[in-house]
Amino acid sequence: MSNVVTIAVDGPAGAGKSTVVRRVAEALNLLYLDTGAMYRAATVGMYDQGIDPDDAAAIAAWCTHRAIDFDAHGAVRLDGNVVDPQRLRSPETTAEIWRIANNAACRAHLVNLQQGIVQGRGAALEGRDATTVICPEATLKVYLDASPEERARRRLAQWSGDGALAPDFASLVEDLRLRDERDRTRASGALQCADDAVPLLTDGLSVDQVVARIIALAVQRRPMVLEACVQDAVIVGRSRQSGYVRVAQGSIADPPAPWQLGLSNPSPDRQPSCTTSMTRNSGGRQAGILCQGKAVLVLGGKEAHPAWPMAMPMLPQTWYVIEPHVWHAVVQAPGTICAWAEASTISEERSPLSEYHQDILASYFQVYFPQ
User: Fold this and answer.
1) Residue 60 sits in which domain range?
2) What is the distance, to the nearest Å, from the Cα of residue 156 to the centroid of all Cα atoms in its chain?
3) Are 243 and 323 within one domain?
4) pLDDT tens, position by position, 279-316
5) Is the pTM of this model over 0.85?
6) What is the rounded distance in angstroms from the CA atom of residue 169 to the CA atom of residue 236?
7) Which of 289, 323, 343, 349 sees the fewest Cβ atoms within 10 Å?
8) Is there a domain that residue 301 lies in?
9) Mind listing the pLDDT tens digit for each residue in 46-68?
């Protein structure tokens, strides 16, 4: 099994793909690929070249010789030149992007460029054929969806319009329905949910809740993908070989102090539906290992209060050495037992979680602790 993680997200226009996938890529240290921006860049270039927008052959002849990629800051480039972000997202570009997207030759060229960008790299990408054409072998495929009404509400909530009157809600809903139908029925790159994609309806969910759900789905498929992202908070060590394998070294406390061993059963406030706080320790590291059952380690950073939580299942034959001052919670299913080693002088501080952070945890737990 390859260690490279690829997350591909499809879905209709306005479902939040760009926002969500960018956040997932940042959280998991993956390359972010906005495939839609490449189509928009080609659309802007087509008009700058004065090509007849009704001449599909001329559009294909021009587009298939273009180099479209991203600079080190994530800005899309056309033939080496960064495209103005305002023009990329302008209503004029949005209205005409179909001339590139529906052109089979243009689409084949852009798909080839996109596959070259992500080949052999950990990546998170989004687009209307990300799971079916660009990355059919992706580690995780998600079909991100929202009702036309939900997407219309989001668009109106984000409306700036530079002083222009916001569109009518009913008209916006109808426009989204028509665009969905056009995307589902077009001859090239039709919008569809891959057979092995996870459908995720986001009506009523915050961006953070959706991001947490997708991270959890990715961790389910590659359990170690999150470990590299939390190295400042926890040392993870495992043994898959015979004999003694050292996970960490040094005194449990600084200065050295007596130490203790213990077992933890799931207390009422550390079960999936009841976790409303995190703790952090002073006076040394705390090392835990899963003995039986199912447990999830939640990490919340080292700030004054718990930050955006990251949650990962505790795996068998694996030590989790939690650094001092890291907000954390070990959430255990009924019947779970964990073993712990820690300095006997260790002290604990507890902080309540906001309702918002509890909602994010619930998104993780829906994947890790399915009902």
Assistant:
1) 6-221
2) 24
3) yes
4) 999 888 899 999 999 999 999 999 999 999 999 999 98
5) yes
6) 50
7) 349
8) yes
9) 999 999 999 999 999 999 999 99
